[in-house]
Amino acid sequence: MGYRTISQIAMIIAALFMVFAVIKPKLDSIKIVEDEATQYQDAVEKTSEYNRSLAALVSTKDSFTRDELEKLEYYLPSTVDTITVMADIKAFADRSGLDVVGIGLASSEDSSSSETKDDFVYDGDDLDGEPQKADTPKTSYEDYVLNAQGGYEGIKTLLATLEYNQYPMEVVAMNFSAQENSEGAEGAPVSGEPVFTYTLMLRVYSYTN
Question: Which residue among 6, 46, 77, 135 is buried most deeply as judged by most CB within 10 Å?
């Protein structure tokens, strides 16, 4: 093998060494920097999008009047006033012509005290590509049991009244049975229409962030 051939082989080996020992690490380093730059740019865009959404929400909130915000709080309050709700249920039943036998909170066996989808949801990625956890608003509720007696027209009027209540009051369960006599809860005679005993479970919601 001649000197020239040996020199060419040596040059090829040196070139390969330069590629794997110097150039490739440099290229890998450049690729890492490019990836970090892309992630940073993506984060900047997401931050800008979040700020725009936040500004839009603040603008929407500021567009409501104080009276409108008070109505919203009344419609879906942050807490449920149990005494007020029970008084409202009794008033609705009285105006509907029903004799109220009893009103109370549902037992824990009949009702759960809170209703949520998940405590957290995955919302976007961080700079390392890991999913972020974001708090979700929680809708809680309380269930009330109404026991009452009266005719068909009375219960129909009550259900119609609940539909137009200023805050949501959902009928989640209802049972009824016909009475054998025609006297009301206090012994007062009732008109010729059949008298029923009704048990309704009514659900009232509240909203917390």
Answer: 77
